[in-house]
Amino acid sequence: MATPRQRAVRIIITAVVLLGAFSTLFFAMAQKDAQFYKHVNEVMASPTQWYGKNLQMHGFVDGEPEQLPHTLRYRFHIKNGGSSVLATYEGLVPDTFKAGSEVVLTGQLQPDGFHVGPNGIMAKCPSKYTPSDGAAARGGD
Amino acid sequence: MASLGTFLILAAFVTASGACAACLAGARRQNRRLVDGGVGLMHVVTAMMLVASAVIVHAFVTEDYRIKYVQHYSDEVQPMFFKLASYWGGLDGSIMFWVTLLAIFGSVAVYINRERYRLLIPWVVSVISVVEMFFLFLMVVHNNPFETFLTTTPATGQGLNPLLQNYYMAIHPPMLYLGFVGMTIPFAFGMAALATGQLDDSWLRAVRRWTMLAWLFLTVGLTLGALWAYETLGWGGYWGWDPVENAGLLPWFTATAFLHSVMVQERRSMLKIWNVSLVIVTFFLTIFGTFMTRSGVVQSVHAFGEDRQLAWMFTIFMIATLVGSFSLVIYRLPLLRARNELDSWVSREAAFLANNWVLLFAAFFVLFATMFPTLSEAVRGERLTVASDFFNKWMTPVGLVLLFLTGVGPLLAWKKSTLTNLRMQFLWPVAATVATAAATTLVGIGFWSSGLCFALCAFVTMTILQEFWRGMRVRQSATRTDLFTALVGLVARSRRRYGGYIVHVGIVLAFLGFAGNGSKQDLEITLKPGQTVTLGAFNIRYVSLSVSDDGQKQIVTAHEDVASGGKHVADLYPGKSFFRNHESEPVSDVAMRRSVSGDLYLVLGGYNVTTQEAEFKMFINPLVNWIWLGVAVMIIGTVIAFMPERTFSFATARVPAGAATTSLILLAVLVGGATTVRAQHVELPNAVIVPPKSPLEKEMQSRIICMCGTCGRKKVGECTCTDAAAMREEIAQLTAAGKSRDEIIQYFIDKYGSQEVLSQPIDRGFNRLAWLFPYAAGLCGILVVTGTAVRWSHRAAPAADPAPSTADPALESRLDHELEDLD
Q1: Domain residues for A28?
Q2: How near does any CA of chain B get to the CA of A70, in Å?
C-alpha cells in the first residue's frame, strides 16, 4: 500500500509527464506541419514575411483559369479584399473550379507567385450543407 | 400539421421537465408513486416524439412545402426513399431525430431495468429528461423543424443535394446517431450510481449491453462514412481526419476504453474512478462532436455552417454537464476508492490501465489537433490548421501501441504474472512475431511502419489462436466431446470473452488494411484515346469517352481497358453525372476493380468531348478491402458477446451435445460451399434508356423482366444490356400500335413460353397460390419451430449429458450466474 504522500508524488509525476508531452506536441505542430489560414489581402499586405511558409489561402478565382494545353498545369489569379496574386498548380482540379469560385489553396507563397501543393485546391460551394470539391466532400449529417 | 408538430415539441419539453422533477422528488422522498409518475411522463415524452416524427415524415411524403424544412430538402421528383431519409438531411430534423432516438432508448432502458435496478431508475429518468430538454430547447427557441413560410409557399422544393442521394445517406447518419445517443444511457446510469452511492458493479452490469450496442452502432456508422467517402467521392481515400469525421471518432476511443476498463472493476474492484470518468467523458464527447459540426467553431467540408447562438447554447450545456458530473464524482470519491492496488506492472490490470491511457491520449490528441485552428486563433491570433499527414504521423504509433496491447492483454495474468506464466504464454506469439518481421523484411516491406504492423498482427492473431486452442482443449478433456463441440460450448459459455477475441480478430484485419496505406500509389495524367499508362501491375488503356442521358441526369463516361501481365483483366468506366437542376454540382462516378490484394481506383477529371482528351486520377490502394472485412468480423464478434444468457441456456438446455456442432457445420457447408456462378453481364454504360412515352409503356417497362439471363432479372426499364433495349423497343411498338395491357402481357408470355417474363405472376386463379405460398411457408415454419421449442422445453428427462452434473441444479444455475460475469 502506497502512502498518501507516495501516491501524490506519483500523480504529480504523471501529470508533469503528460503536460510535457502535450506541450512538445503544440510546439512541434506550430513549427512544421501547420498551415496558416489567411485571406489573400492579409498575405499580400506584406508578402515577404510569408515566403516559404505553409499557407491555406482563401480567395476567389479572378478570371478564367488558364490550362496549358495537353497538360495538367494551371495558372490563375486569386483575389480577395482588393489584393490579387498569381497561383500555379499541377494536377486535377475540382469540378467546381472556374472563374469566380471561392477556393482555399494550400501551398507556399514564393516571389514568383503562389505554388499550390498536390491536391491543394479546395473549392467551396456557395450554399450551406453542400459539399465543396470532389477531393474531400460530404454534406448533410 | 406544422402547428401540431410545434405544439408537440413544446409539450414534450414541458413533460420532460415534469418527468425530471417528479423523479427527483420521488427519489428524495422515497415516494414510489412519484417515481412511477415520473417514469410515466417520460414514456409520454417518447410517445409525443414519435408522433412529431410521424408528422414531419408525413409532411415529406405529402410534399407539404409550407414547412420550410420540407421545402429545403425535398422536391417532387425525389424518390420516396430519399424523401424519408431527408428527415435527418438538415440540422433541425437531425436534432429532432436525436431527441426521438433518445426518448426511445430511454423508455426501453428504463422499462428493462425497472425491477432489478429500482434505486437507480429515478435518477436515470432525470438525466435522460434533462438531455432531452436541452435538445428540445434548441428546437423551441432556435431550430424548429416545423417552421413554416409566413407568406407565400413555394410551389416546388429545392431537393436533396444529388451527392446525398445514395443509399449511404439513408444508413450512415442513423447508425451514427444510434451510437451517439446510445452513449447517453450508460452516462445516465453512471450518474444514477453516483447520486445514489450504489457504486459497486450493479450499474456496470446494467449498462454493459447498452455500451456494447452503442459502440457497435458507432463503429458501423464510422465505417459506413468511410466507405461512402471511398466509393462515391473520388479522392482515393477513406479517412481525411476532417473535423466531422473526428467528432465521431472521439467518443469511440473513450467508449472502447470504458468497455475494457469495466472488466478490471468487476474482477478487482479497481479503476472505479476511471470508469465513471470515462462514461462522463464519452457522453461529453458525443455532445462536443455535435457542437463542433453544427456551430461553425471549426471549418470543415461537412460543416453545417456558422451559428453563433447555437454555439453558445451548446457551450453552456457542455460546461454544465462537465461541472455537474465531475462534482458528483468528487463528492463520491470516498466510495470510489479502489479496494485493491496494482500489484505488478506485469499484470492484466496494468495492460488495461495502459490501454485506458493510450486511448485517452488518442482522444485528446485528435480533439486538440481538430480544435487547433480555433485555439491558435484565440491564443496567437493566427488560424493554423494541420493536415491529415500530421494526424497520420502521430496516430500510426498510437495505433501500433494499441495493437500491441490487444495482444499482450490476454497473455498476462490477473494480479501478477510469474516468469513461468510469461514463458508459457509468450512463446508462440513472440515466435510468430519474429518470423513475420523477418519475412516482411526479406520480402522488402519497410519495417516502419508496415513491417511492424504485420508483425504485430501476427502477434495478436497467435495470441487469440492460442487462447481459443487452449480453451478448446480444456473443455474437450472436461466434457469428452469432439473439438468442434468443445469450441461451440466454449464460446457459448464465455460469450463476452470469446466474442471479444473475435472482435480483436476483426481489429487485426482492419490493421492489415491500414498497413496497405504505406504502399499506396497514385497518378494524375491526361490521356488521348488509345494511350496506355502503367500503374503498379496494371496497364490501363484509355479507349473512348461517351455521353448519355437517362432522363434524370447526363452521364459522361470513359472506357478504360485494364490489363495485367498481358491479359485483359477488367473494363472500367469512370465518369461524371450531371443531375438536372444541379448541373453545377457534378457527381463523380468512381470505377473500381476490387480484389483481396487491393483496389485499382479510377476517377475522371476534366475532359473534352470533341477531342476525346480526358484527365484521370488513378490509385492503387493495397489491402484496403481487409478493413471492410475486419469491420464485418467485429460486428459478428460483438453480436456473440452481446447475446443474453437466456437465449443460450434455453437453446442448449435439452439438446444433445453434438447438435450445435452438427448444425453449424451444415450451415457452413450450405453457406460457404455453394457458389453462384454468374455469367458476365454485358453492360452498355452509355446505353440511352429512352424515357417511355406513355404511362402504359412505363408500366410495361416495370412489369416485364429482361431475359438476358445475366442481369439477375432486372426490369426491362432498368437493365442496360442489348436484350433489354430490344425488348423496350418491342414494348414501344406494341403500345404505339394501340395494344392493351393484357394484350402486351399475353404477347410476352407467348413469346417466352411462360410467366417467367413477368416481374410478378398474374394475380388470378392458380397463380394466387404462388402469391400465397411464401406466406404460407413462413407461417408453417414459425409454427413448427415454436411447437418444437415448446415441446423440448417441457421434456421431463434430460438428454444424455456426458458432462458430470452436480446433484443440485439450483446451485449449478447460481454458480453459472455468478461465473458468467467473471470474464
Answers
A1: 1-34
A2: 7
Facing residue for B90 by CB, picked from A30, A56, A129 = A129
Tell whether A90 and A115 lie within a shared domain.
Answer: yes
Residues A50 and A25 in one domain: no
Calculate mean pLDDT across residues B648-661: 65
Q: Which pTM was predicted? A: 0.81
- Asked, for residue A50, whether it belongs to a domain, the answer is yes
Q: How far apart are CA B771 and CA B763, in angstroms?
A: 8
User: Using 50, 70 and 90 to split pLDDT, how confident is the model at B654?
Assistant: low
Average pLDDT estimate for B523-542: 90
Mean pLDDT of chain B: 85
Do residues A62 and A104 both lie within one domain?
yes
How many C-alpha atoms does B643 have within 13 Å on its Cβ side? 21
Give this complex's ipTM: 0.77
Count of the separate structural domains present in chain A: 2
Read off the pLDDT of residues B351-396 as tens digits, 9 standing for 90 and up: 999 999 999 999 988 998 888 888 877 877 777 888 888 888 889 9
Task: Report residues of chain A scoring pLDDT below 70.
Answer: 1-2, 26-27, 29-31, 125-141
Nearest to B154 by CA among B96, B57, B93, B69: B69
In chain A, the residue whose alpha carbon lies closest to the alpha carbon of B158 is: A127
Burial of residue A18 (CB within 10 Å: 0-12, 13-18, 19+) is middle
Residues B524, A92: C-beta atoms closer than 8 Å: yes
**Which of A92, A128, A140 is nearest residue B164 as measured by Cβ atoms?**
A140
Instruction: Check A135 against B365: CB less than 8 A apart.
Output: no
Residues A113 and A61 in one domain: yes
Q: A7 and A57: one domain?
A: no
Question: What is the rounded (10 degree) CA torsion for B6, B8, B13, B14?
Answer: 120
B229 → closest Cβ in A29, A33, A138: A138
Closest partner residue to B301 (CB to CB) among A1, A35, A131 is: A131
CA-based radius of gyration for chain A: 22
**Are A4 and A25 part of one and the same domain?**
yes
- pLDDT-derived band of residue B269, with 50, 70 and 90 as boundaries? confident
Q: How far is B626 from chain A (nearest CA, A)?
A: 22
In this predicted structure, which of B503-512, B520-529, B732-741 has the lowest mean pLDDT? B732-741
| A110 in the same domain as A46 | yes
- Same domain flag for A71 and A94: yes
| B611/chain A closest Cα distance in angstroms | 11
- Cβ contacts (< 8 Å) between B341 and chain A: which residues? 1-2
Inter-chain touch B163–A131, beta carbons under 8 Å: yes
- Amino acid identity at B733: Q
Q: Is residue A133 part of a domain?
A: no
More confident residue, B211 or B741: B211
Q: Do B576 and A132 touch (CB under 8 A)?
A: no
In whole angstroms, what is the distance from residue B613 CA to residue B606 CA?
Answer: 9
Candidates B723, B714, B747, B751; CA nearest to B733 is B747
What's the CATH code of the domain at A77? 2.40.50.140
Residue type, B738: G
Q: Does B812 score more than 80 pLDDT? A: no
Say how many C-beta atoms besides its own lie within 10 A of residue B302's C-beta: 21
Do the Cβ atoms of B389 and A128 come within 8 Å? no
